[in-house]
Structures are given as structure tokens and as C-alpha cells.
Amino acid sequence: MNITVFGIGYVGLVQAAVLAEVGHKVSCIDIDEKKIENLRSGIIPIYEPGLTDLVVKNYKNGRLNFTINAAEGVEHGDIIFIAVGTPPDEDGSADLKYVLNVAETIAEHMNKRKIIINKSTVPVGTADKVDQAVNDILQKRNAVDINYDVVSNPEFLKEGSAVKDCMSPNRIIIGSNSAYVEAKMRELYEPFNRNHDKMIFMDVRSAELTKYAANCMLATKISFMNEIANLAELLGADIENVRKGIGSDERIGYHFIYPGCGYGGSCFPKDVQALIRTADKIGFEAALLQSVEKVNLNQKQKIPSLLDKHFNGNLSGKTFALWGLSFKPNTDDMREAPSRVVMEYIWANGGKVRAYDPEAMQETLRIYGQRGDLILVNSKEDALQEADALIICTEWQVFKAPDFDAIRKVLTEATIFDGRNLYNPLKLKELGYTYYAMGRGDSVSGQY
Ligand code: NAD
Fold this sequence. Notes:
By secondary structure, this protein is α/β, with parallel strands linked by helices. The protein has 18 helices and 14 strands. The structure holds nicotinamide-adenine-dinucleotide.
């Protein structure tokens, strides 16, 4: 099938590459000229396992095309995805200007029937707005006889395993009441739907809400665990024992109940906020979601407050080794990453950071630029040089079994602030460390 994707970011690029891989002909449109130029030269703007090979291969074989020419893109695709960003507006609601811009662009150029798919995460009612935007322009063009459908098809990929998730999705949600759309969507996704039927058809509004509900549920699980972790800490319990204890209940399960230094990324913070605003606008108080957000904002202050306690409010002249910058492992995405809160707190208080991340170094440099109090180094060992203490913000595999004897020899103080509960507190105590973790016994004082 001929497909066009507007917005070649995490979602658009991965979806386009995966659709091309199974045989569809995909045209990728973005307004970022440099990004398009780079993609044509095989330079992939994001780190995502398996993505580079897929993009390069399908670009070479002609099934994947990159252009800034929107008219060409609209002409090519019978099915057109909108996969642009929906960042938070000033009040936290989703800013739809990029989505509606694309809708208008499609309407300006379309001259035959199109299926327009909202893949971006958009509030309930956005399909109606896209429909209105397209219709307005078709009217101006005297072209109301051109048929089109607006469909919601939210994306559930996880950064870090995006290619795998798109290749074998758990579910494919389609919001549309049209039999024509259902047949086309079945044809489009047929290669991903062979094992069993993963396609769930529903009305547009329910599809739009499903995406927010899924992300808000996951964010709620994390904030719930962080709240219990903070309670465990004050009560002298170990959240890691509690986690295993509750995870063994099949109704709860082990997934997504890890305590930590707060959730980040491009989705959970903005989607929780956006659903709170959606509720506000219709006069409904989303009390649970408000608490989820509040708990998370507090949790991001957890490491700063432990630093403050340990160093008696004096970080001036101290250097901190920081392992992990991305908001989670296997991505270079730094959006809303807890590491940013930690670094900015250290800098505001006169300290320095020596940071290492397997993939997010370039992104860190792009965000913060060259500065005297940020030293980006090439290995986790190098980060420890001249550092007073070690801080861990991301649970990359390479941080999970370090040489603790070697670390102790290098650090000025044998102190670790572990935002991801990677180590055994008793073992670290035996090795002479002061170890602060998230909700593990009396980690406020570093004693167990
Ligand atoms: P992104 O910021 O990585 O990419 C968006 C792209 O859209 C950019 O390259 C930008 O240049 C381009 N763009 C903006 N306006 C355009 C226009 N008029 N025409 C063509 N291109 C345009 O965003 P993302 O992370 O891929 O997210 C896209 C959407 O998918 C968001 O709504 C997000 O919430 C949702 N989503 C993201 C993830 C994720 O893990 N990143 C997962 C599921 C859903």
C-alpha cells in the first residue's frame, strides 16, 4: 500500500521503517530539513535498537522515501499518518497546533480519497477538530466532493524497544465506525496480525481516551510504588521485599512496580498533565491523576534532598559522578529525565557533574552546551575520577554489576545515591559504603 507519514520523530520514523520493511511504500515528510537530509545520508536522528539497519535498508531498496515536500507526500499516500509532536501547552493541555497544521496541509493538497490517521497522542475530540480543519479547507477549495476519513490509531511503542514493539504489537487500536476504514486497516496491518487478531475496533473517542488511560495507568503504578517506597523508608521496611511480595499476586503482577527517582520521558508527564486538563475543562476533578503528578514531581526531588542531607546543604566545590542521563535505558531521550533535575540542583548549589551515559551524551551536550560544571566522559569509570560521590539515575545494564572495590578506591567518599535500587544494601554496607536507595530501610541516614 502507499503510505505517507507526517512527522519523522520517534513514532513516525519507527512506524514508517517497519511498514516499509513488510512491503508498503512509505513516504516520510518532516519540516526539519536537516533531519531529512541526514536521513537520506543514513544518519538516524535518534538511538533506537535495530532502527538504523531498517531505515538504511529500506531507503536503499526504495520503499522508504524522505522529503520535505508535503504536496508530494499527500499525492503518494492513500493512507496518511499524522505523527507529529503534541507537547504540553502553557496550561499543560496538549498543544494541537502541529497536528492541525498537518491536517490543513493534507487538505490543501489532496485530490483523491484519503484515510487520515491520528497516530499522535491527542485528547478526546481531536479527530473532530482534524475533520473540521480538513473540511474547512476543502470548502474553500470547492472540493468537498473529495472523500476522506479521520481515524484514531494511537501508538503504544516503548522507546528502547520501539522497533520490536511495532513489529509485534500487543494490540492495534483503531477508532472508526466505517467498514471501508476497517477493511483498509486490516490490509495495512495484516503482516503484524498473523499470530492472532490484535486489532480492536472502537469509536474514535474511545480510541483517543484509550491511549491516555494506558499511559496514566502506568504512571499511576510508578507513583504508587514511589509513595509506598517513601513510606517503607520511614517505617524501616525494604521496598524491594515489598515489591516482590505484592508482585507475586497475579492481580498486581511484577511489571511496572519498580520504585525510583521519578518517571520522565516524552509521554507520561505530558499525558498525565493533558488528561488532568481535559478533565478540568469539562468540570471534572481528576483527583487521582493530580496526585500521580504531584508524587512524581516530589520524587524527582528525592536525590537532591538526599544530597542536601548528606552534605549538610553544602555542595559547593563537590564533584559528583553521574551514571545515566536518559530518562530510561536503551534510549537517548532526555525529555523530562530525572537526571536533569539532579544535575540542575547540583549546579544551582555550586557543585560539578562528571557524567556518563551509553547513548545520551550527544543529547546532553545539545541541551546544556559546553559548561564548566558539566564534564561528559567516555566511560563509567572515568566519571568516578575526582568525584566525591556516585549518583545513579538510569538503570542501564552496564551499571548493574560494577567493581565496588575499584569504585571505593577512586571516590573521595565511598557514598552512592542510587535512584534505581540496583545494588544490595547489605553488601555495600559490608564494603564500607554509605548507600542511599529509594525506600530501602533507613536510607535517609545511609545506615541499614
Ligand atoms: P518527536 O518530537 O520525536 O517528532 C515529531 C516530529 O514531527 C519532528 O521531527 C518534527 O520536526 C515533526 N513535525 C512537526 N510539525 C510538522 C509538520 N507540520 N509536518 C511534518 N513534520 C512535522 O515526537 P514523538 O516522540 O515521535 O511523538 C509524536 C507523537 O506520538 C506525540 O503525540 C507523542 O505523544 C506520541 N507518542 C510518542 C511515543 C514515544 O515514545 N516517543 C510513544 C507513543 C506515542
